[in-house]
Amino acid sequence: MFKLGLKSPPPSSSPHHLLPLVLLSIIIINSTATATATATANGKGFKEAPQFYNSPSCPSISKQDMCSQQAVHVAMTLDFPYLRGTMAAIFSILQHSSCPENIRFHFISSPSSTRLHETITSSFPYLRSQIHSFDTNPVSGLISTSIRSALDSPLNYARNYLANILPPCVQKVVYLDSDLVLVDDIASLAATPLGTGTVLAAPEYCNANFTTYFTPTFWANPMLSLTFSGRNACYFNTGVMIIDLERWREGDYTTKIVEWMELQKRMRIYELGSLPPFLLVFAGNIAAVDHKWNQHGLGGDNFRGLCRNLHPGPVSLLHWSGKGKPWVRLDANRPCPLDALWAPYDLLRTPFALES
Questions:
Q1: pTM score, two decimals?
Q2: 317-330 per-position pLDDT tens digit
């Protein structure tokens, strides 16, 4: 319990004697929140993470080489609302990697937010990373309102354009959301075999009711519902994917996804943001990844964000997909039990040390 060093007011039957204390508490709380936001925005709100080094068995890669095929390439979006989550994700990836110096991070940001890369490099001065500007204007006109406003952010659709955003020399990438942490070596995930002709790999969840991801309008139209004919389509979460960018470019899969988004603007065929176009193009045609690499749904549902437990089985990656984010719940002093697994990776520096 925090103490503000204030004496208790004299007993009184009038609530007006409490007003100065209430106002002072509000001022202190608001000042702290403002300072936190300001510090975070200018890059001084996060602690510097320890440096992690390669094990002796790691291949040697030049620090300046951002194209090496021996490196593990990781793509993540970068924006202010999820910055704290991104920092924690990076920290977890490096801490559990056997070859952390061989990881190349590619951060995708809107032009107005590219300065956030300075925040990343101030906490990880040794990080091998690049910032890639994503022009959100073309995709903004294709976005349809979904069941949660956070899903409507143009940057949430950057994964559709990775093959165009990242340099052509990057042939394969692990795409990760910002609301997750790894507790295993990312090199094992990146080494997932894609097989012949497969463009991406992700954990599949065939027990999920696949029909719920599309509207009755979609299923009532034979020309549309036949899209999945013979594909054994299953749900997969797009927050963790291994993508062969060369095959993506060769198949022009960005255009295929955009065509479904254009149709969605004309006749509503789904409700859930950027996920359904991926399902329409890839479901039933992806390489399998063990479920331990995406223990998703820890943020609860898209409406209330209630607490959830882990799925049965081993865990290599914890993913707070859904409305509830661990940093928000921790700040509100209403954490879920599993949020304690995220907290050790939180690099936010508290600007004021209140007496406890």
A1: 0.85
A2: 999 998 999 999 99
